[in-house]
Design a protein that fits this description.
With about 280 residues, this protein is of the alpha/beta class. It has 10 helices and 9 strands.
């Protein structure tokens, strides 16, 4: 059934469904994990740093339990869902807007015998399918920026969380007090009018009655990650002929450069948020 997506979400869906984007994110960005990594040094492989983000976020939840139900909002290729299922036995619902990514996710899950623990749903985190108060954890990595209605995304997270449940997420953001206009090249590239900020998410969560657990500021990792992705793209560019269009590669290199510049100028932020729904 065709769903009604908001304009920013529909734009993101079309982008991530494109063959160029699918090949780029799966082969260059990080394979199963297409989010910002926690790097130990500048030359670390993207895959290793990206997986470290997943493992660290799981550690921040304490010891995830096999009876937990987890919702991953904007699950991409499902790397986080598989980590939680394989290592902790969690039952994970992987909600994601790209049908192309979701098919790859389902295929990997089946090949690794995890399709019994992971349900992959086509859909938007602005309107999560199903009843409320059924997840122990709502998890998301670098996905909320694609919504122009981020308060609604948080509202949906609160709705589906059980009392006492935890919301844990990361998102590329503007710094609080970021000068107007300096992020326009980034916003134009991703077809958005704004980014969230640490203060925005903290206030929006408070307005929804969420209790803050903590925010780990890892802002320095943002330009580091985008720089590593650009380096990897440039190094492997000769091998990508025929699978990713030259125009896409050039636009991607330029776009990655905007993220690096914004991060190094101190205009961007990134880190790990944790909130708890009142029992």
């Amino acid at each position: 059934m065709m769903q009604n997506y908001s304009s920013p979400v529909a734009t993101a869906r079309d982008y991530y469904n494109s063959p160029d984007a699918d090949h780029f994110y799966h082969s260059i960005w990080g394979g199963e994990d297409i989010h910002i990594g926690l790097y130990e040094h500048d030359r670390e492989p993207i895959v290793d740093a990206s997986r470290r983000t997943v493992a660290h976020m799981a550690d921040l939840l304490g010891e995830p339990q096999a009876d937990w139900r987890v919702l991953d909002m904007g699950a991409g290729y499902g790397g986080s869902a598989r980590y939680l299922a394989e290592n902790h036995g969690c039952r994970v619902t992987a909600l994601n807007l790209s049908e192309v990514e979701n098919e790859r996710n389902r295929s990997i899950n089946k090949s690794r015998g995890l399709d019994g623990l992971i349900e992959v749903l086509d859909g938007s985190f602005e309107t999560v399918p199903g009843e409320g108060e059924r997840f122990d954890v709502v998890w998301s990595q670098d996905a909320f920026l694609h919504s122009g209605e981020r308060e609604q995304v948080l509202r949906e997270a609160v709705r589906v969380l059980k009392p006492g449940g935890v919301l844990i997420f990361t998102d590329p953001m503007a710094q609080d007090g970021c000068p107007e206009g300096v992020l326009d090249p980034i916003l134009a590239r991703i077809h958005l009018d704004s980014l969230g900020s640490p203060g925005f998410y903290q206030q929006a969560a408070a307005d929804l009655g969420l209790e803050p657990i903590g925010f780990e500021d890892h802002t320095h990792q943002l330009p580091r990650h985008y720089g590593r992705v650009r380096e990897e793209l440039e190094a492997r560019e000769p091998d990508l002929a025929g699978s990713i269009s030259p125009d896409y590669i050039e636009r991607m290199k330029k776009g990655l450069g905007h993220w690096v510049d914004g991060g190094e100028a101190g205009h961007l932020a990134w880190g790990i948020f944790r909130f708890r729904k009142s029992a």
